[in-house]
Amino acid sequence: MPTLDEHLFEQNSEQLTEQPERFRVETTEQAIWAMRKLRGIVVEIESVKAIAQSEIDKIQAWVEAETKQLQTDENFFTALLEGYHRRLFEQDGKKKTIKLPHGDLQLRAQQPAYTKDDAKIIEWAEQNRPELVVIPPKELNWGELRKQGKVIERQFFDAVTGEAIPGIEVMERDPKFSVKLKA
Description:
By secondary structure, this protein is an alpha+beta fold. Among the domains are: 31-95; 113-171, no CATH class. Helices cover 52% and strands 20% of the residues. It has four helices and nine strands; from the N terminus they run ααβββαββαββββ. The protein has helices at 4-17, 28-91, 118-128, 142-148, and strands spanning 97-100, 103-108, 113-116, 133-134, 139-140, 149-152, 155-158, 168-171, 176-181. The strands form four sheets. The chain has a three-stranded antiparallel beta sheet with strand order 1-2-9, covered by helices on one side. Strands 3-8 form a two-stranded antiparallel ribbon. The protein has a two-stranded antiparallel sheet with strand order 4-5. Strand 6 and strand 7 form a beta hairpin.
């Protein structure tokens, strides 16, 4: 005579091996019914997504309204701190970072910005530095030229030939200000 555990194990094993036959579409009427069910499911999914998007839009509008004044206040206080830091930096050029109890004020040098006239630069490069011109299409390898050039008083010079390169205007940028808040 089997024990209770053996009997339950035997029953569970039979249930796991016996799987009911899955429904199959075999007639046009069944296919039409399945299509109606599928269309209803798709419509319901679209409805749920539309409701969710509506709520997301409302929340985003609420966030915008609630943070608009706060962002204005943030910009105001950041500008005050930047003015303070820049005045100290003018007095003592070593004050790139000012540590305060609630965070740090930082000024970091930035790379200069360049205004380029590619046609003039390519024309110059074809005559003086053809290795900097990539063909096809005819375009300048700006990254390589920038690495090999020097900036002197808003002019860009080729370090190899020593010539001022036409078509490049250099604009020095102020150091970038940032506030790092402590948690």
